[in-house]
Amino acid sequence: MEVLTVITVLLIKVISKNGRRRINRSARAFEHYRFKADPGQSLLRIDKFLSDRLENSSRTRIQNAANAGNILVNNNAVKPNYRIKPGDIVQVVLPTPPREIELIPEIFL
Which domain holds residue 52? Predict the structure, then answer.
């Protein structure tokens, strides 16, 4: 299976235009993933397929991304119940979870 993972500082929104989906960008952090289903891939729901491949991503998070139009299969937005077929190219854009950073000053004596 071919896998591409990229983390960028872009906000991706899928916008419908004439029935086609396109990507619009503005500033925020998102995780980008690209998978190509194996030729022997059995029919499997997209949310299950991705939850098996994405670490630290719950099935609910993946379903929310699909409902928001952030999961594309062969360049078309899909819903969480879409079934992966052999050779499908899946592109995923997930918001990077917020990270809390606490800075603690060091005191040198």
Answer: 2-95
